[in-house]
Design a protein that fits this description.
It contains 3 helices and 5 strands; from the N terminus they run E-E-E-E-E-H-H-H. By secondary structure, the chain is of the alpha+beta class. The longest helix is centred in the C-terminal third of the chain and has 24 residues. The chain starts with 7 loop residues before the first strand and ends with a helix.
């Protein structure tokens, strides 16, 4: 039986390769907006991050988003991404604790 190949992506913060499903996609939409892509299917150029605010902060410090997305990423957008990832992790932790 043929084994399915797991798509791998590299986090732009810590540079670790992980299965695509374990990472969060950040997308530069065609109109230049930087967004979290929770579906993994949004149009635009993408970069991947571990679900860890520290990885997002590292990526911001080394200008990895701008390099990967091929656009200038404002400090506001970086801070918003870090906040959104932190909120998402907090929400997931609460769901896990209920179960």
């Amino acid at each position: 039986m043929k084994k399915n190949k797991v798509p791998m992506r590299r986090c732009v913060g810590c540079m670790e390769s992980k299965p695509k499903r374990e990472l969060i996609r950040i997308v530069a939409s065609p109109d230049g907006e930087v967004l979290l892509d929770l579906t993994g299917k949004a149009n635009g150029r993408g970069a991947y991050l571990c679900p860890d605010p520290e990885c997002a902060a590292k990526a911001g410090k080394k200008n990895a988003f701008a390099r990967s997305l091929h656009i200038n990423v404002s400090e506001e957008d970086l801070q918003r991404i870090v906040r959104e990832i932190g909120a998402m992790i907090h929400t997931n932790d609460q769901r896990t604790n209920r179960e």
